[in-house]
User: Which sequence fits this backbone?
């Protein structure tokens, strides 16, 4: 191996290990989704307790992301990523260990699941703050790496969930908890030993002299408010997450059960959406060089295709037709996460990335349960077809309303370019000196656009 090849490998190794940590985390998240409800149901025999465990495990994601984002910016992304994964791994490991030794009362089980989500959630924002420096160090394209990075949750769910089911069927739910804990711990070790510190560590005196916790949180909110491109994208994602999160957990199950009279069809629908999303996400990297080079048109085009495809469900095309539609919906939605995260990594200053990623992720997650509840109420009131059609039409209305948005037009203005009206320099400084701006409201390891 030549010296130049060795040097190239050294430059790229932090990026490779960070991607491996992200994929391990995604695989562990899939294990969690399958294992936790089965484990709780097996150990307690209570469906009510199982539902409560799911609620308790999901609730902290709404606020833990925003709080964790502040901690990421205060103490550094690498440190928080390691600490977050390490703490979550230990908490998950305690569940089967305590159950097998001293016993695990239900209140303690719920407390451990609650704490696990709290400590695990900040790792998502923490790893995102590490991504741009290691990409630049490796000499890679931001769009290409984001494509692979954002594919991890989707690939983890499609591959990890069935494997988790097989593992649990063969060895029991406790084994799934051990595997979940192992993914956390290995991810922590990879970031700790293979990813270099890229941010400047602030001294205790600097932390004390700067704004406090809530002051830093307000700085993150101020940036979202004062950078039109970030604010516009966040608002767009909040609305579309409201619409998206009614599709998979509500419309598809009801369609499979009430229209097709087949619970098995739901598995095909979910699998098709997942595989399509993986294809679309991975295609964004090469397609962003030409076909999807215009980000604003990509945003509107992807959501327009998703809206039209979901409108076709109104005509009840049958199991095969719905499966094809689900696959195409996944492909159309795949480019969105890597594209949006690329814009944010380009625009958000390093010292505010944790807060901005944490806040935008928390806002997106808040919209999801409201969308599910609204859709459920509408289905009970008007049946399935009309609410599905209305939710699909809202996509097209949102595109029409947002077409002339100056913030979304700025998505294609690269920082440092001559016409960059919304570049980092002026708005970001404004965000940092306006800590008193009024605050406003991406499975425990994070999510953004569905």
Assistant:
């Amino acid at each position: 191996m030549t010296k130049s090849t060795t040097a190239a490998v050294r430059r790229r190794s932090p990026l490779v290990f960070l991607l491996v940590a992200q994929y391990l985390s995604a695989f562990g998240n899939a294990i969690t989704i399958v294992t936790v409800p089965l484990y709780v149901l097996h150990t307690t025999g209570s469906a009510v307790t199982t539902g409560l465990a799911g609620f308790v495990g999901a609730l902290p994601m709404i606020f833990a992301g925003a709080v964790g984002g502040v901690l990421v910016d205060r103490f550094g992304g690498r440190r928080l990523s390691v600490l977050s994964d390490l703490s979550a791994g230990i908490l998950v490991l305690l569940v089967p260990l305590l159950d097998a030794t001293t016993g695990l009362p239900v209140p303690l089980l719920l407390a451990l699941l609650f704490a696990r989500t709290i400590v695990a959630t900040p790792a998502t924002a923490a790893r995102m703050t590490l991504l741009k420096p290691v990409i630049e160090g490796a000499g890679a394209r931001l769009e290409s790496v984001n494509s692979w990075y954002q594919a991890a949750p989707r690939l983890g769910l499609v591959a990890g969930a069935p494997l988790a089911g097989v593992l649990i069927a063969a060895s029991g739910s406790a084994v799934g908890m051990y595997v979940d804990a192992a993914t956390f711990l290995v991810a922590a070790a990879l970031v700790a030993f293979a990813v270099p510190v890229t941010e400047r560590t602030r001294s205790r005196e600097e932390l004390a002299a700067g704004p406090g916790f809530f002051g830093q949180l307000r700085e993150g909110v101020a940036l979202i408010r004062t950078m039109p491109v970030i604010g516009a994208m966040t608002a767009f994602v909040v609305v579309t997450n409201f619409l998206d999160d009614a599709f998979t957990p509500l419309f598809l199950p009801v369609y499979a059960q009430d229209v097709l009279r087949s619970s098995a069809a739901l598995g095909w629908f979910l699998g098709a959406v997942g595989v399509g999303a993986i294809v679309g996400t991975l295609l964004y990297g090469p397609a962003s060089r030409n076909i999807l080079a215009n980000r604003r048109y990509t945003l509107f085009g992807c959501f327009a295709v998703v809206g039209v495809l979901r409108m076709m469900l109104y005509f009840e095309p049958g199991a095969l037709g719905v499966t094809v539609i689900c696959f195409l919906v996944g492909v159309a939605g795949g480019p969105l996460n890597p594209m949006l995260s690329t814009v944010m990594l380009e625009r958000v200053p390093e010292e505010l990335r944790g807060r901005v990623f944490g806040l935008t992720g928390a806002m997106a997650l808040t919209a999801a349960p409201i969308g599910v509840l609204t859709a459920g109420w509408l289905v009970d009131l008007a049946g399935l077809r009309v609410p599905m059609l209305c939710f699909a039409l809202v996509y097209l209305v949102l595109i029409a309303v947002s077409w002339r948005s100056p913030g979304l037009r700025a998505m294609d203005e690269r920082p440092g370019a001559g016409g960059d009206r919304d570049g980092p320099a002026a708005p970001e400084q404004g965000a940092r000196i306006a800590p008193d701006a009024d605050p406003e409201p991406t499975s425990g390891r994070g999510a953004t656009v569905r």
